[in-house]
């Protein structure tokens, strides 16, 4: 089983069929080169000296293409810890989702909930802001992540602008980098504001295409999938089929491979074949759209 990583090989050797099927359903992490580059850049921002003009990041990409996975991976690197000497909790990176509409109050609530800080619903907005600021300073927070930033688009242009100003103000005031992730629509909104556009460095998670990077991604998946035989996912016709079915989205690739690997175990085939790929119960993103609009 040379096609597997050592951990996966050990797992295959000591596990039942049922355990292997369960493991196919677990999300995997593959540090493909663009993801690693983005995480390295975020690491760098954490050690920048404080200033009122911090560099922020806007992670842009299509839905289901790995933005949240990158943010989670980065966030996990900087878990909260307890400093025994001072008795303080330190939380270097805080990650929240933008509220479903550009609402300042709900945004502060999301941060306070994330750090388990109780708040009164009656608390005034400015006091709530001061508390967020105080708590993040106490927790020695070095970066704030806001996922799903395109939610700000749910409001009127005035509300959108107001909310973006809150983010600008928070970054200037706390002097910490803010890392946002969202779809192309969010990118357009941020670009429309000069001050924000200057402060946000865009980083794109592109769709996958038929190149060596995609083959490397498939090879990495193959090494983590608990099958006894080699599937040769990097063989041209299989690679092409996976690319077309997934529409170049990593979430779809992961889903297709999950279904195929479960079938490969259940059927006793122990490898992903073209026949398995063609027979899984899976509808590609393009076909989903067609069915919906038909
Ligand atoms: N680095 C990775 N390695 C392996 N699988 C990944 C990786 N990144 C993403 N995936 C898979 O893709 C799926 C979708 O990723 P993710 O939720 O990060 O997308 P997203 O870009 O945040 O989408 P949305 O804009 O809809 O929130 C994940 O559930 C996971 O299965
Ligand atoms: Mg996401």
List the SSEs and their pairings.
Blueprint: H1 6-14, H2 17-25, H3 33-46, E1 56-61, H4 67-77, E2 81-83, E3 88-90, E4 93-97, H5 104-114, H6 125-138, E5 143-147, H7 157-174, E6 178-182, H8 184-191, H9 194-199, E7 200-205, H10 212-224, H11 236-246, H12 250-267, H13 274-279, H14 285-293
Parallel strand pairs: 1-6, 1-7, 4-5, 5-6
Antiparallel strand pairs: 2-3
Helix pairs in contact: 2-12, 3-4, 5-6, 11-12
The structure holds adenosine-5'-triphosphate (ATP) and magnesium ion (MG).
Describe this protein's structure:
This protein is an alpha/beta fold. The protein has two domains: 6-28 and 209-293; 33-205, 3-Layer(aba) Sandwich (Rossmann fold), CATH 3.40.50.300. The protein has helices spanning 6-14, 17-25, 33-46, 67-77, 104-114, 125-138, 157-174, 184-191, 194-199, 212-224, 236-246, 250-267, 274-279, 285-293; strands spanning 56-61, 81-83, 88-90, 93-97, 143-147, 178-182, 200-205. The strands form two sheets. The chain has a five-stranded parallel β-sheet, with helices on both faces. Helix 3 (33-46) packs across helix 4 (67-77) and helix 11 packs across helix 12 (250-267). The longest helix has 18 residues, at 157-174. The radius of gyration is 22 Å and the shape is globular. The N and C termini lie far apart (46 Å). The structure holds adenosine-5'-triphosphate and magnesium ion. Magnesium ion binds next to helix 4.
